[in-house]
Design a protein that fits this description.
A six-stranded mixed beta sheet has the order 3-6-8-7-4-5, sandwiched between helices. By secondary structure, the protein is mainly α.
């Protein structure tokens, strides 16, 4: 009981003692959004329909990976189709198309919802679909009420993709995934790491689903024309458009979040304030988990005396972000990428820097995800161009060079190929099974899909293969493959899509969703 009373006293002291100081950090994070005119704010279009969206069926919420693999012949399909076809969900897809119609980065809409409640429509606040910062506004405790709805929308796009393909509308199925990727690109410009990580993962997933939709059509109705495929390749612009890699920036909001905490929880002498530090850190650590609040208060109370002072803490924050910035702007195979990051190094001696390790997320994952986006976008362009040539001529290219300039303007660079070092531009790897194998036999491929059991497939000259050395940097001739370009297991497979192969394997083995 004494511990609970002490924790409660600390929490009350924090609420009473902390003034509005530090709100300038919120203003700094929101500054870019304040400059966006209302007619270019996608949040004002999308969030009202997300409020009205019906929750996905429970089976999707429990296992989101099922959404892209479900078959119309499966036992759960009727419920999923009914949900996706309902007016509330179709309104979400219509809004998604509207806010991504403009693809020029200079004129495209932006998700400019500010963090906090200032300037936020009251309807968003009542629905809990805003960025709640609490009172006083604290970035480190941000509760992003729209993120769950974003996940619902991703599930909806997957189900709608399958529904449209089943109805003989593969072009629309592909376009809604491009819409989702374009929206995720807007979220990639947000300020907090959790938003940006969602955006990067969503862009990559949408590109995988684009290839999947094309592959399914190639094995079925063959309704997609070479012109449509070529137009789609052009729309995935990696040189001047939304997916130009050097326009992706590290989010700065978490830095401001940590600095705001330093401003609030240290006293005038630069030491952790006994009356404020434990409560503030406990509130942040227990965000979304209120039952942990008292336990966290006690834990942080024990760290007050051992914590670094304000100057040392600020220096640690700056050092982490300066290191990340240097790495972000260096080549993927630059020697600095093989050294331990400042963030990881600090984590090994975190006893005196609990505020930093608790409030600053590890943005190192964004480095891998950014490379994955480059691999997915460039690889999708190459695969669709190769298929367009097949559709147009009835034959498969003997070399990727034959795709230019009619089906693709530039083959791009495989970011996982170690030959990118020293300014080289290695392309994705390509071959046609049987035709290009020395022994002329079908190509056996061992596939390691995400969250699924490994399986093998046999490819003939009905298919072509586009792949990358992937995370291990070694060309294994697509014998062992996965759909994760960072995986050190074999090669990263672009075509045939791992998603398509996995769905077919599940169907053949009677394990389909």
């Amino acid at each position: 009981m004494a511990t609970l009373l002490r924790a409660l006293t600390l929490l009350l002291a924090f609420t009473a003692a902390v003034p509005a100081a530090g709100d300038n950090f919120v203003d700094t994070v929101n500054a870019d959004f304040a400059r966006i005119p209302e007619n270019r704010r996608s949040d004002l279009v999308l969030l009202p329909v997300l409020i009205e969206m019906q929750p996905p069926p429970e089976l999707l919420l429990q296992r989101a990976d099922r959404a892209a693999l479900v078959l119309p012949s499966g036992p759960v399909w009727d419920a999923l189709e009914t949900w996706a076809a309902a007016d509330a969900q179709q309104a979400v897809l219509a809004a998604l198309a509207t806010i991504t119609e403009e693809t020029n980065p200079r004129r495209a809409m932006q998700f400019a919802l500010p963090y906090g409640i200032n300037g936020v429509p009251t309807g968003f606040i009542r629905a809990g679909i805003h960025a709640e910062l609490g009172d006083p506004p604290t970035l480190a405790g941000a509760q992003l009420g729209y993120m769950d709805r974003f996940d619902w929308m991703k599930l909806l796009v997957d189900i709608e993709t399958t529904r449209l393909i089943e109805q003989g509308q593969p072009e629309d199925a592909i376009n809604i995934n491009l819409d989702l990727a374009a929206f995720a690109r807007q979220i990639a410009d947000r300020k907090l790491g959790q938003e940006v990580e969602w955006a990067y993962e969503t862009i990559a997933a949408a590109m995988r689903r684009v290839r999947d939709a094309v592959y399914v059509d190639s094995k079925g109705a063959r309704a997609l024309s070479a012109q449509f495929l070529t137009d789609t390749v052009e729309s995935i612009d990696v040189d001047r458009g939304l997916y130009r890699v050097d326009r992706f920036r590290l989010p700065e909001g978490d830095r401001q979040s940590a600095l705001q905490l330093v401003e609030r929880v240290f006293d005038s002498a630069g030491r952790p304030d006994q009356a404020i530090f434990p409560a503030a850190m406990a509130e942040m650590a227990a965000t979304g988990r209120p039952l942990r609040l008292f336990g966290e208060a006690g834990r942080w109370a024990e760290q007050v005396d051992a914590h670094a002072d304000a100057a040392q803490t600020r220096n640690a924050i700056s050092g982490i972000y300066n290191d990340w910035s240097t790495r972000w702007n260096s080549g993927a195979f630059d020697p600095i990428q093989r050294t331990r990051s400042a963030y990881r190094s600090l984590g090994q001696r975190s006893e005196g820097y609990g505020l930093v390790t608790e409030s600053v997320p590890d943005l190192g994952r964004l480095f891998d995800l950014r490379k994955a986006i480059q691999a997915e976008t460039v690889g999708t362009r190459v695969a669709l161009a190769a298929h367009a040539l097949t559709v147009a001529t009835g034959a498969k290219a003997t070399s990727l060079a034959l795709l230019r300039p009619r089906y693709i303007d530039d083959l791009g660079v495989d970011p996982f190929n170690p030959n990118t070092d020293l300014g080289n531009r290695p392309e994705f790897l390509y071959f046609v099974p049987e035709r290009d194998d020395v022994n002329g036999e079908p190509h056996r491929m061992n596939v390691a899909p995400r969250l699924r059991t490994n399986f093998s497939v046999l490819l003939t000259d009905d298919d072509f293969v586009v792949y990358s050395p992937g995370g291990n940097g070694a060309d294994d001739r697509a014998i062992n493959v996965s759909d994760n370009p960072s995986d050190i297991f074999g090669d990263y497979l672009v075509w045939p899509p791992v998603l398509s192969l996995t769905r077919e394997h599940l169907r053949q083995t009677g394990a389909s969703e």
